[in-house]
Every structure is written in C-alpha cells, then in structure tokens.
Amino acid sequence: VFLFSDNKAYGITVYSDNERVTAREFEGVYLSCKHNVKKEVGARVEWKKIKGSTVSFVYLNGVFVGSFKDRAEILHSSIHLKNVTRKDSGKYRCEISAPTEQGQGTGEVEISLLVLVPPSAPVCEVPISALSGTVVELRCKESEGVPASKYRWYRNGVILPESTFFWSFKKEKNSYTLNTTTGTLLFNPVSKNDTGEYYCEAYNRVGRPQRCPVKRMQVDDLNVSAIIASVVIVALIMASCGLGVYYAQKKGYFSKRNSSKNTSSKYRTTENEKDFKHTKSFII
Fold first, then answer.
1. Taking Cα atoms as reference points, which of 101, 118, 100, 1 lies closest to residue 44?
2. C-alpha–C-alpha distance, residues 121 and 211, integer Å
3. Is 144 in contact with 198 (CB distance < 8 Å)?
4. Contact 271, 279 (CB under 8 A)
5. Residue 167: left (phi > 0), alpha (psi -120 to 50), or beta?
6. Half-sphere exposure of residue 273, counting CA atoms within 13 Å on the CB side?
7. What is the layout of strands, in order, in the sheet containing 29-31?
8. What does the DSSP 8-state code read for residue 214?
9. Where, by residue number, does the polypeptide cross the bilayer (predicted)?
10. Tens of pLDDT, residues 150-205
C-alpha cells in the first residue's frame, strides 16, 4: 500500500510513495519522489533538506552537494542515500519544474526521514549507603538513542516491576516509584529490604539494550541506642570535668598558685630595689 501526497501546480503533479521514512543508522534509505511530467519535455529536479529554519541543497544542477556527494544516487527523480547517520534526520523537499501549456510549472513534496540509533551505555547514580526510613533516588540516563530510550532497573539480577502491586503477593514492604521515561527509581521511604546490587538498562527497540555497571546500595537502620549511649558518655565526661574544677577550687589549688606567683613577684621587686640603692650609693 502506497502512502502518497499530491501537490499539483500548473499541471505538474508531484507525490511520494512514503512521506515518513525510517532507517537504522549506517543503512541505506530510499526517498521517493514521482511526478507526471512527460519524459520528452524534461523536468528539472532539485532536492533540499530542511532542518528547523535551515534550508540546504542536497541535489542541484544534476549533482549531489555537501555531505551527500559521495553517498547518494539519483533514480529518475527519487534519491537513494547510502550509509545514513543521525545527522541525516530531517525533512527533505523534492521540487520539480518544467514548461507547461500555462507556462513554467512547479510542484513539490516533502518527505520526513528519521534515522534510528541504538542507545549507548547509560550513566547510573546509586548511593553507596542509606538510612532506613529516608527518601532515596537512583538515576539512570543516556542521550544517544533515537527514539529516546526508556529504562528498567534490576536488583540482584532481577528486574523491578514498574508497579509495586506484584510485590504485595510476597507480603514484602516495598515502596518505590519507577519512571521508565526519566530513568529514576525513587524509594519513599527506603528500607533494609532494599539493600542489594543495582543496575539500569536503556532500550529503544533499536539494537541491543545497554546497561550500566552494577553498584551496591547498603541500607542500615538508624542505631538509636548507640546515639543515646554516645550522648550519655559525652554528658558524663563533661560532668566529671566540671566536678574536677569545683573540687580544685574548693581545696584552694588555684589560690595557692596565685599567692606563689605574687610572692615571687614581690621578691623580684625587693631585689630590684636593693640593686638600685646599692648602685646609687656607689655612684655618689
């Protein structure tokens, strides 16, 4: 079954067998462009590529230009592209012009080309450790795949279902949200049961799925007893220091030190005065 568009102007009809073409990267592709201009009249054929607001020539004055020069061939008014890459994705316009009874006639048709690209190995973010009862998010992302990749997560080599409904039959408490579009795996909250080895897989039905290296996440309970014990020990140490200072003050250790300092200073002052008087009398 052919899907074609009809664009008729001044007696010229231009159409395509397939206006939406897909091809895997590095394969060949055929862009169909047909018209009703008689062979003896002769038609002028031009191909242009439209990507966003940029328009560039593909085929002009009977030759291919740019990156298409050595990997394309014209078949009547259609073209065959060899070894397509992701950069070839876009819209292509086939323009036909020829003299008609009403004057110079023109017609055109647009074909959309999508080059399919398999995913690359995704980058995964998995925390090494986490505390039970907290919110933990695992991330997975790759940016090469066309169409955009989707994601699935594995724990200990077993795929995690998109819904936690299946886990209810095992009577295990699992609370997570898996977003297959963004690649995030959210535990809200995380528990000790979630401890394990995780990896993510990116896929888009083009080529083989790709995965990131396995990473282990350890989930531990918050040790309340250890925290309380630490607080008690610190409080006891501070109390002991306070009692030691109080005992030293009561026994007068600090005052004895001060008095000894004063005595030594007085002795040094008296000696200085004697030296001064002796020196004065000697001068006289």
1. 100
2. 5
3. no
4. no
5. alpha
6. 5
7. 29-31, 78-81, 72-75
8. P
9. 224-248
10. 999 999 999 999 865 444 444 455 589 999 999 999 999 999 999 999 999 999 98
